[in-house]
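User: Thanks for the earlier help. One more: Response regulatory domain-containing protein. Can you show the sequence and predicted structure together?

Assistant: Of course, both are below.
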Amino acid sequence: MDFEEPVTMDLRRRILVVGHGEVGEALVEQLEGEGFDVAATPDPLRVPEHTKSWKPDLVLVQESLPGRSGRQVVLSLRANGDVFKTPIVGVLNDVSVLHTLAWMRVGATDIWRFPFTRGVSSRARELIDECDRSQVQLGHMKTRVLAWCARAQLNGTVTMYMGTPFEGRATFVNGELHMAQLGSFTGERALAQLLELEDGPMRWDVGSSQPGVKAVPPAGYKIRVLVVEDEPTLRKMVTRKLESAGYVVEAVEDGEAALHLAPHKPWDVMVVDFDLPRLDGWGLLRALREDVVLREIAVAVLSAHEDAVETLKMARAGARAYLHKSGRAKELLDAVSLLATPRAKLWNALERRTDVEVQLRAVGPAWLLRTLAELDCAGRLELEDALGRYEVTVSQGHLIEAVAQTGSLRVTGHVALEAILVSRADGRFVFSPIEPPPTARWIYEQLDETCDLLRREEAAKLKSALSRPGSLVLNEELAELFARVATVDQLKVLDALRETPPDVEGLVAATGLPTADIEQSLAALLRRGILSPEQR
């Protein structure tokens, strides 16, 4: 570690260190050696007490803390008016750009890597002075991100919703924002909107902007499209255009009919008029998102309104494209082609028996397993996400083994298959000559059983959670892992649950979130095993 010569300070700056072990000791040793007034605590629950009475000039928060994540500590501090204008630094082992953005979303001002490559004292002094000169960077996330990029001299491009018509990107050169584009938004406004889309897929590429995903010919893969449009003339026209482009198309006239038909065929894309009778676009998106298989369908929304803000609301609700009804047929065809491309590319590679990279968020785990069965693939699917690692071994349409390692828990069989179906993992399928044992079961059979079980379990768990949220049991080990990637809403709900609220109204009061957002966060936390209903 680097140490600096002591300096004389007219006013001793106060620094609160929230950390333990090697990280906490290193911070305290360096800062006290340079004349800072340092207080330290390893207990996240004592942080509000320290900040209120001691009023530090800087707070340093370690990522991993006993009983609570560093991101949760920062989020709770930013909700406290006493430290709203105080710079907060996250001290992490992994300082990737995407991980840094996750910390910026909860209110961090800067991110430091441990082990330290620069003297802590000089960095602390520079940051305090910088924030004294310009309080603006302590406010909106955009300003904090721009200030961090300048300090880090960032060079590269962050891209969100890759390979969809919603794709947005921001490029940085020598720490300065070079360009940003999201729909009709450009520049800093586009960057601000991009940063708000926290639950969407995101990628960081070092260097100059990478080209966007291009649509590929489906080759042997038959792309299935379900059109949901109540106006007969438009429904026929959209169907005819898609069929002439080679897609397998069916059409229905309202949201309820779409929801009834959707489970019976493996749809790749759904083209939905947003102003539908019986069940409108919002309701249909919500219903699709709640189902373990239907949430994998890429939804393109048709609307008579051309509004950039409405477009972003659709993206947050789960849509992957937003098209104006009066637009040209080419725009619709291009959007559908782009949305179907991840599956078409993966299907083509598997058909050629080529080892291939896999992104479950782009294609869907249930679709992938069915494709491995349909193409009689033999080999191993190896995946990893923030919660763990997963492996599936298949051969000639049979599922030989499924394994999931989440935290210290290792499970196999249908429990492992459940974990894979709700994961957002990336990985690789590697072909290898494997003969299925006589006892191996068909992939289709096990997948259908597991999906049916998941539907029943998810519905029952959410119903129980909404009736008695205070009785939910928290898996501390998984919660610590999940906190690295959790959304701000999910972190707020986790924090509020520690106070054992008696009902959903208590969660609304504690988090400030609307009931629908709380339900969505609870569903995600239950699905990943972070929360579970109390066993009676």
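User: Great, one quick takeaway?

Assistant: The longest helix spans residues 443-467.
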